[in-house]
Amino acid sequence: MDKFFIHGGAHLRGTVSISGSKNSSLPILAATLLTRERCVIHRVPDLSDIRYMLEILRYLGADVSFSAGTVTVEARKVGWEAPYDLVRRMRASVCVLGPILARCGRSKVSLPGGCVIGDRPIDLHLRGLEALGTRITLSKGYVVAETSALTGTRLSLRGPHGSTVLGTDNVMMAACLARGTTIIEDAALEPEVADLARFLRAMGARIHGEGTGCLEIEGVEELHGAEHTVISDRIEAGTFAVAAAIVRGEILLENAPSEHMGSIIEALRQAGASVEEEKNGLRVQAGDPLRPFRLRTGTYPGFPTDMQAQFCALAVTVPGRSEIADEVFPNRFMHISELKRMGAHIDLRGNVAVIDGIPRLSGAPVMASDLRASAALVLAGLQAENTTTVSRVYHIDRGYERIDAKLRAVGANIERRP
Ligand code: UD1
């Protein structure tokens, strides 16, 4: 298991190139199962979550290659069972359920299992697939879905915390091959869902209304092969933006998807950082003093829960009281106890972190617990005095392509050691 050694206090300055989006790539790769023809996907980031998904596709019978950011998948035949050992590693693997069902008429996928960011049910996925005419049973830790014919209908995917991203993906993919028209109300508005819709359209699907909350999908007999380029990763871009702010430095985020980053940009400006759009990206610059801020996560276009931990790390370094609430995953605060070990003053009141900033954190050994919490610890280490060691960095490798190399290139003193 690798560790990061971060010697804090280096000034960051330079350009970071933002990779293709992980959360777009995963469902798009799952969607390649909907056709027997060849699909070519560009700008796929080289991450362990992506490698898990490719392993699942191979297990299901697809020919898969991955080189220089391009994945080619040809799924002439598709098996219908995704076993626990593959699915447990990554929750997003649940998004093969809809495509396998649409292609084979049945699908058996292990329940994705527990997750440190709180309870993550899949009831909305199942409710949506049931509405399309699927019989669902839960047996020995597996979801077994069977249908004689998927049939279009009107359904809603609204849950207690808003709509569901992967649930929308799953139902949209299944509906592409259903008989008749499906209307999905309360569909997720996230740009990654719209990216999947664009890929499905390139495959011959008839989808309208992505980004409006109401998707209309006219089923077709068959989908064909297609080529697609994945959008840039707004969460990776947001994380490097916070890196610039936390050390009061300046970074140009090349290829940052500014059109998808409205709430993140607003939060940075609220904190007093400058964010300027340039021809090839976003320039983020910060100097002292930054201002305390208040944030509340929500579904898109609200502030993303996937940026909550990183902004907690930033707030910890801003004198004054900041408040950050997570409405999407109310228990997603594993980073707080680790940040406290670095001297942070944070009081967790329900789903609200009340943070009293201090001028400088102190380096400490800390442990990564989930993907974004780990990113927050790396950010904190950049600002802290002395050395911070972050262990279990495999959590970071799930979602950030070469984060240590990208940070070193802008001046950070960070090393990866076994
Ligand atoms: C996706 C993202 C993840 C992000 C999350 C919220 C991917 C691969 N992952 O996860 O990074 O943090 O969106 O933006 O794209 N819920 C239910 N029932 C369900 C499904 C979800 O109640 O069947 C609840 C969840 O517990 C949560 C909320 O709905 O409170 C949103 O979850 P959801 O949008 O489904 O997250 P994911 O799609 O799993």
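^ uridine-diphosphate-N-acetylglucosamine complex. The chain has 14 helices and 26 strands. The longest strand covers residues 320-325.
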